[in-house]
Design brief:
It is a single chain. By secondary structure, the protein is an alpha+beta fold. It is 29% helix and 29% strand. The protein is built from eight helices and 21 strands. α3 packs across α8 and α5 packs antiparallel against α8.
Length: 366
């Protein structure tokens, strides 16, 4: 009886003092593609999954610069560098107030969007917000917005708006509309990037396990990278735009004549006598260019999870004779049959390009 009375007294005291009810967990909005999810708060922990731009996850815990999220019936850790934390309670309060003030019902009792989506206008608050070709993070990014750019909402599908203006029509994740942080991609706008697709023409470069040519892979990667850089507002110059031979001197001369902010020479490796060797490495010649090499190497390893061969000094002509910030990156071993097959796949090529972009963004934003 005493235990029951004590419990009743506690309940009454709680009611009098007004103990607050549990609050909803905050949410993490992912701001980049191919972000690694790890088993613990650090890059030394095992990678267990990947998340992409626009995806939203419940936050479980925070430690230093790492966020623990719920994903696929378990939890994992992501770096806070590429997420926006959304206050779920504030959003709900704002949503409830909006519903009270302007929510409407049609004759069948179904909820309607305020003021009818067909005439609803939205304005993007940050540069380089991503527009996709379908309402899914699996959709291709087809456009990056400018700050204060306006769109008409055509329809709403789950967490996505279908939007259009005079420039483009596509889909945007609703959570990105409330992202008040500057996008990490803004550092590439108006930068001039020279891309050097290694080899070409009669110079086929390294030969892969299946007889493939390095020049084919370097050109494929360069074309994809050029497309993404232009979408981010960069000016892109190519040392070659077709399968042709360009001398090493011609490549570096072009880089030195043009007012370039970065020179990136794309290559692939081969060691036929050691077919199990794999991985990605980045090289610099001038000490002041080591930072560019480091940022790009870290970015590509993050997105691909490839074997990290690190950053090193090398006496390659195209980086020795280039006086602008310049690096040469070896993006995999064609002599490794498994890695060669992986490099032939477009999704993996997109990961490589995303990593190079991340590295450039960090380099220019510092």
């Amino acid at each position: 009886m005493k235990k029951i009375m004590s419990y009743i007294s506690f309940i009454l005291l709680a009611a009098i003092l007004g103990f607050p009810a549990p609050t909803s967990a905050n949410e993490a909005i992912i701001n980049t593609d191919y972000l690694n999810v790890r088993s613990g708060p650090g890059t030394n922990y095992e990678k267990i999954d990947q998340v992409n731009t626009g995806e939203v996850y419940t936050i479980v815990n925070e430690e230093d610069n790492w966020i623990e999220i719920e994903i696929n019936d378990r939890t994992g850790w992501v770096t806070s560098e590429y997420i926006t934390v959304s206050d779920k309670d504030s959003e709900k309060a704002n949503s409830d107030a909006s519903d009270t003030d302007s929510g409407m019902k049609n004759q069948d009792g179904d909820d309607e969007l305020d003021n009818n989506n067909a005439s609803k206008e939205i304005t993007i608050s940050t540069d380089n917000t991503q527009i996709r070709d379908e309402p899914s993070t699996n959709g291709d990014i087809i456009y990056f917005t400018s700050k204060d750019e306006s769109f008409t909402v055509l329809s709403e599908t789950e967490d996505w708006y279908e939007i259009e203006n005079n420039e483009v029509s596509g889909y945007i994740h609703q959570n990105l509309l409330n992202d008040s942080q500057d996008s990490t991609t803004t550092g590439l706008r108006n930068k001039t990037i020279m891309l050097d697709a290694g080899h070409g023409g009669r110079d086929v470069g390294a030969i892969g396990a299946s007889g493939s040519y390095e020049k084919t892979f370097t050109f494929q990667t360069t074309m994809e990278l050029e497309k993404e850089l232009k979408l981010l507002g960069a000016n892109v110059i190519l040392t070659r735009s077709v399968d042709e031979f360009i001398s090493l001197g011609g490549r570096t001369s072009l880089s030195n004549v043009k007012d370039t902010d970065a020179f990136i020479s794309i290559h692939y490796n081969s060691t036929p006598d050691l077919p199990q060797v794999s991985g990605i490495g980045t090289y610099y010649y001038h000490d002041q260019h080591k930072k560019l090499a480091t940022e790009i190497q870290n970015g590509v390893i993050q997105t691909t999870d490839a074997n990290d061969r690190g950053v090193a000094f090398e006496n390659f002509h195209v980086i020795r004779q280039s006086f602008k910030p310049s690096i040469l990156i070896e993006l995999g071993f064609l002599s490794n049959e498994e890695e060669e097959n992986l490099l032939k796949r477009n999704p993996y090529q997109k990961k490589i390009v995303a990593g190079i972009l991340h590295g450039l963004q960090r380099y220019f934003n510092d």
